[in-house]
Write a structure and sequence with these properties.
The structure holds two protein chains of two kinds. Chain A is mainly β. In chain A, 0% of the residues lie in helices and 50% in strands. Chain A has strands spanning 4-6, 11-14, 19-25, 33-38, 44-49, 55-57, 60-65, 70-75, 84-90, 100-101, 105-110. In chain A, the strands form two sheets. In chain A, strands 2, 4, 5, 9, 10 and 11 form a six-stranded mixed beta sheet that branches. A five-stranded antiparallel beta sheet of chain A has the order 1-3-8-7-6, with no helix packed on it. Chain A is globular, with a radius of gyration of 13 Å. Chain B has strands at residues 3-7, 10-13, 19-26, 32-38, 44-52, 55-58, 64-70, 73-78, 87-94, 103-104, 108-112. In chain B, the strands form two sheets. In chain B, strands 2, 4, 5, 6, 9, 10 and 11 form a seven-stranded mixed beta sheet that branches. Chain B is globular and about 40 Å long. The model of chain B has no long low-confidence stretch (mean pLDDT 93). Classes of the chains: A mainly beta, B mainly beta. Chains A and B meet through strand 5 of A and strand 5 and strand 10 of B.
């Protein structure tokens, strides 16, 4: 089983749609969880951290289910500018310097 | 504010040639520094990280090496490039006490022919 698995997509959605991305991780000792955004041929940028209690930042909501080892990202009212690849990222354990990245899910928001 | 620079932005090199990619960080002291590679169709792979000058940890055995000659300078090198070394090389920095916080540079796109 891969360490971090994501549906590669692409997800093609119209403007204004709600879209959800899912991610599973294999290491039950994982401590920290993130969603990064990567535009085409650019570096990844931190979108948001993911907490067990769930967290929301504007149109973006992230959820973590430790029991199921599952992370989600919900984007409401999609904008054209949301088109990018969304990377699920996990740290293996306390004090680890290694971020484990999923391969990413590509989102295209269509006019 | 902190900024991270990488150069060159793009590079085309023949197989067997040497490689030197440079990364510098401004606006912070004693950062953790990282080198990642993103190959086509694959996720980001951590290659090296450093928590201080002269301290290098390697995550993946290969023909690449890294050095940290100064606090905010991180260099990725190879003596002889392979075709499989092609990819997008990303340097990242993070605060010294926050191992899971990393900020990426603009990257170097390397093509080995």
């Amino acid at each position: 089983r891969k360490e971090v698995e994501q549906d590669p997509g692409p997800f093609n959605v119209p403007e204004g749609a709600t879209v959800a991305f899912n991610c599973t991780y294999s290491n039950s000792a994982s401590q920290s969880f993130f969603w990064y955004r990567q535009d085409c041929r650019k570096e990844p940028k931190l979108l948001m951290s993911v907490y067990s209690s769930g967290n929301e930042d504007g149109r973006f909501t992230a959820q973590l289910n430790r029991a199921s080892q599952y992370i989600s990202l919900l984007i409401r009212d999609s904008k054209l500018s949301d088109s990018a690849t969304y990377l699920c990222v996990v740290t293996p354990g306390a004090g680890s310097y290694q971020l484990t990245f999923g391969k990413g899910t590509k989102l295209s928001v269509i006019p | 504010s902190q900024t991270i620079h990488q150069w060159p932005a793009t590079l085309v090199q023949p197989v067997g040639s040497p490689l030197s990619l440079e990364c510098t960080v401004e606006g912070t002291s004693n950062p953790n520094l990282y080198w990642y590679r993103q190959a086509a169709g694959r996720g980001l792979q951590l290659l090296f990280y450093s928590v201080g000058i002269g301290q290098i940890s390697s995550e993946v055995p290969q023909n690449l090496s890294a050095s940290r000659p100064q606090d905010r300078q991180f260099i990725l090198s190879s003596k002889k490039l392979l075709l499989s070394d092609s990819g997008f090389y990303l340097c990242a920095w993070g605060p010294p006490l926050a191992a899971d916080t990393q900020y990426f540079g603009p990257g170097t796109r390397l093509t080995v022919l």
